[in-house]
Design brief:
By secondary structure, the chain is an alpha/beta fold. The chain has two domains: about 250 residues, Aldehyde Dehydrogenase, Chain A, domain 1 (3-Layer(aba) Sandwich); about 190 residues, Aldehyde Dehydrogenase, Chain A, domain 2, CATH 3.40.309. The chain is built from 13 helices and 19 strands. Strands 11-12-13-10-9-15-16 form a seven-stranded mixed β-sheet, sandwiched between helices. Strands 6-5-4-7-8-18 form a six-stranded mixed β-sheet, with helices on both faces. A two-stranded antiparallel ribbon has the order 1-2. Strand 7, helix 7 and strand 8 form a beta-alpha-beta unit. It is globular, with a radius of gyration of 23 Å. The termini are far apart. The structure holds NADPH dihydro-nicotinamide-adenine-dinucleotide phosphate. It comes from Herbiconiux daphne.
Amino acid sequence: MAIATVDPSTGELLREFAPHTPAEVEERIAAADAAYRQLASTTFAERAEWMRAAAGILEAEVDQVAELITTEMGKTLATARYETLKSATGMRFFADNAERYLAPEQPVESSAVNASALSVRFDPIGVVLAVMPWNYPLWQTIRFAAPALMAGNTGLLKHASNVPQSALYLGDLFERGGFPHGSFQTLLIEGGAVAPLLDDRRIRAATLTGSVAAGASVAEAAGRNVKKTVLELGGTDVFIVLPTADIARAAELGVTARVQNSGQSCIASKRYYVHADVYDEFEAAFVAGMAATVAGDPRDAATTFGPLATERGRRDVQELVDDAVGKGATVLAGGEVPDAAGWFYPATVLAGVTPDMRIYREECFGPVACLYRVADLDEAIERSNDSDFGLSSSVWTNDPDEIVRLGREIDAGGVFVNGLTASFPGVPFGGVKDSGYGRELSAFGIREFTNAKTVWQA
Ligand code: NDP
C-alpha cells in the first residue's frame, strides 16, 4: 500500500510520501536506543511534566489535528475533535498515575524468603515498536505511547500507510513537549517492512493493533526473536437484548454501537442477539434508527458518519453483504453502494444470516449489523461464544441474575451492561481468542512493557 493521504470523501490523492530509506530507519532506531538510555534515568515527575506539556500542545492544536484526521480517514470532524481531546486526557491520566501504577511492590514478607528486604520493581525494557491502524489514528497510538513513555520506554511508530500526516504529527509531538530527541518517532515504512525490524536487538518488544493477519505476522517475527508482543486485533462483538431491558434505549444506542466511526471499530457491535419476546419491538426501532442515519460529508454537523477510510475497505464490506444476500439473507436497511464520489456506505441491517455466509463469522469493518432472534439467555450466550473473536460485548438487561451470568460466561475481554463498549484510560482493554492478547491502558497496560524485577537482599 502506497504511503499517501487520499481523501476518502472524494477519492482524491492529496499527498504521497516516499518510504524512509534503510539509512533513515537505522538513524531512528539508533536515536530511539540512545533516548532509552537517557529516559530510563529520568524521574516520573520529569516525564509527567513533558507528557502534560505534549497534552497541552495537542489541546491547543485540536482544530488542526481534527481536520487532518478527517482528511486522511474520513471520520466526522466532531468525532475527530473528540478523539484528539480524549487522547490529551489519556496523556494526562498516565502523567498523573504512572508512578503509582509502577510503584515497587513487596509480594510476600521478606522473612518468608529469608531476606532482610524484598521488592519487585517495574523497570522499562527499551525500544518498543508500535504498529498502529488508521481507524483512530491518534487515540490508538496515544494509548500505547503515553504509558510506554511514562514507564521510561521509547517508541517507534509504524502507522498505517493511509494516515502518514497524522503519523508525522505524532512523531514530533512528544519531543515538542520536552521529551529527549528520539523518545518517540515515526517510521514511514510499509507493512511488509515491519517483520525484519524485530530481528534488530535494539527493538525489545512490539505492539500491534489491526487485523489478525498483520498481528500474526508481527508475533511470528517477535517470537523467533524471543520478544514480547501485545496484540489488539479484530472483533465481532455481540449486542445482547433481553426482555427486562429498556428496549427503546437499547435500540437507540444499538445504532450508535454499529455506525460509530462508520462501523470501523474493533469494539463496534456487529452481532445482535435479541430475545424472541422483544425481538419485533427491537427490530422495528433499530431498523428505523439505522435507516435514519446520514452517511455524508464529514465536515457537516448534520452527518451521522463519514465515508469508509479506503476503497478496499468498502469493497470488503460490500463483498460480505453481497455474499450474505446471495445466500438468502434479507436486507432490512441499506445494502447498496451509493452512486457518488467517495467511499460512502449506508447503515445496513441484515436478518436471516446463516453459518454458510461469510459475515456469520468474519469481521465486517463497516456499518453493517446482523440481527438474530434467540429463544433465551442460554442461546444468546452460546451463540455469542461461538466466534473466533472475543474482544468485548454490550448486554442489555435489568435482571441481576442475568447480569452476573453474562459477566461470567461471555468469552470476551469486556462485558458492558446497558451501555456501549468504550475504552477508558484507567480500565484494561484487550481481548481473547483471535482478538489478541495482553492489555492496553490501566495498570495492566503500563506493566506490559516493563521488567518486573525482583530485588532480594540477604
Ligand atoms: P491491517 O492490519 O492491514 O493494518 C493495521 C496496521 O498493520 C497498519 O499499520 C498496517 O500497515 C500494518 N500491517 C499490515 N500488514 C502487516 C504485516 N504483514 N506486518 C506488519 N504490519 C502490517 O488492517 P487494514 O487497514 O488492512 O484493515 C483490514 C482489517 O483489519 C479490517 O477490515 C479490520 O477487520 C481489521 N482492523 C482492525 C483494527 C482494530 O482496531 N482492531 C484496525 C484496523 C483494521 P500498512 O497500512 O502499511 O499496511
